[in-house]
Amino acid sequence: LKLNEEQAIRKKLHNQIEEAKGNIRVFCRCRPFSNYEASAGHTTVVDFSAAKDGDIGILTGSSTKKIFKFDRVYTPKDDQVSVFADASPVVTSVLDGYNVCIFAYGQTGTGKTFTMEGTGQNRGVNYRTLEQLFKIVEERKETSTYSISVCVLEVYNEQIRDLLATEPTSKRLEIRQASEGFHHVPGIVEAKVENIKEAWNVLQAGNNARAIGSNNVNEHSSRSHCMLCILVRAKNLISGECTQSKLWLVDLAGSERLAKTEVQGDRLKEAQNINRSLSALGDVVSALANKSSHIPYRNSKLTHLLQDSLGGDSKTLMFVQISPSEQDLGETLSSLNFASRVRGVELGPVKKQV
Ligand code: ADP
């Protein structure tokens, strides 16, 4: 009984803290200069002097600077461990029955995949999340039992593709309201996983399936949303209470606008669909941040899929990824403006540079 009371107190405290802070967080992460940019002598437009306070300055001209405010600002020196340390309380709240959605937004090449998936030893949020979930499940085994499953989806051209299905290319999937209130995709493969190794293998299988049928894997991934869903079914052994919750980890399509001359035929349709889904996501999250009475989830497959993990008492974390380079200034400003809108706050003041 004591443990049960402790859990209730912990949840209440957690709720109070979250209520005070709101359920939408935006973290801004800037990638390092690439070797090419460094050797070409490109200059930086980013000022990290107030990064500790969540402020990032963007030099928009020789004497002007725009300040944007976020919940966290990461410099290129901040590693995967420190980024995950900040994201960890949000992701692990899925084990306490909350729905969670984490997504990485930004221009192609700014580190969305680096943040979510990571590379080699530099594992990202996806791996670290699963690792942490299994660790907590083990720690809580005296009081709770958990069943964890994963789904891996891709949304490309407003079509959902199940990357764990045996025939991933042919299926056209639709979203339905499940009986228990969840939105889900009937027939989607849910792989039950018992430990981090199994979970990682499933993710790799999903990743491999992504490449099937596309000539250029990198181009294809920058134009589709890669969506990992972790489903948690929990039973509290003391109270007997059962809960179901979802955690979405999403690596979004690149947010860059293509040059008008470049866009024709299939590329035009692709670009329009990316635009549509990213602006639908911005509309939904900013409607939530502004406590609007109508939340337009139905405007894209992406937001429709995420519906039960955006809003209500669910928690949302957005990584806005940017490039430090002067060459990308236009896209950087556009991403930061988008992220500020998502956070439900107005733009920071334009300051004279000192
Ligand atoms: P995106 O998914 O936005 O297209 P990537 O994740 O593929 O971008 O990143 C582009 C390149 O920059 C990759 O080689 C990646 O390893 C590197 N990179 C991005 N962010 C970081 C970082 N914070 N630290 C080190 N390398 C990074």
Protein architecture, described:
35% of the residues lie in helices and 26% in strands. It is an alpha+beta fold and 354 residues long. It has a domain at 91-327: Kinesin motor domain (Kinesin, 3-Layer(aba) Sandwich). Strands 1, 5, 6, 9, 10, 13, 14, 15 and 16 form a nine-stranded mixed beta sheet that branches. A four-stranded antiparallel beta sheet has the order 2-3-4-17, with helices on one face. Helix 8 runs parallel beside helix 10 (329-342). It is globular. The relative contact order is 0.20. The model is unreliable at 346-354 (pLDDT under 50). Bound molecules: adenosine-5'-diphosphate (ADP). Adenosine-5'-diphosphate (ADP) is lined by residues 31-32, 76, 106, 108-114, 119, 222, 321.
Using brief descriptors, characterize the structure shown.
354 residues, Kinesin, nine-stranded mixed sheet, four-stranded antiparallel sheet, 10 helices, binds adenosine-5'-diphosphate, MALECTIN DOMAIN KINESIN 2
List the helices and strands and how they pair.
Layout: H1 2-21, E1 24-30, H2 35-39, E2 46-47, E3 55-59, E4 64-69, E5 72-74, H3 80-92, E6 100-106, H4 112-116, E7 118-119, E8 122-123, H5 125-139, E9 144-156, E10 159-162, E11 176-177, E12 183-184, E13 191-193, H6 196-211, H7 217-222, E14 225-236, E15 242-251, H8 265-289, H9 301-306, E16 315-322, H10 329-342, E17 350-352
Parallel strand pairs: 1-5, 1-16, 6-15, 6-16
Antiparallel strand pairs: 2-3, 3-4, 4-17, 7-8, 9-10, 9-13, 9-14, 11-12, 14-15
This protein binds adenosine-5'-diphosphate (ADP).
The site of adenosine-5'-diphosphate has 14 residues, from helix 4.
Protein name: MALECTIN DOMAIN KINESIN 2
Coiled coil: 1-23
Family: Belongs to the TRAFAC class myosin-kinesin ATPase superfamily. Kinesin family. KIN-14 subfamily.
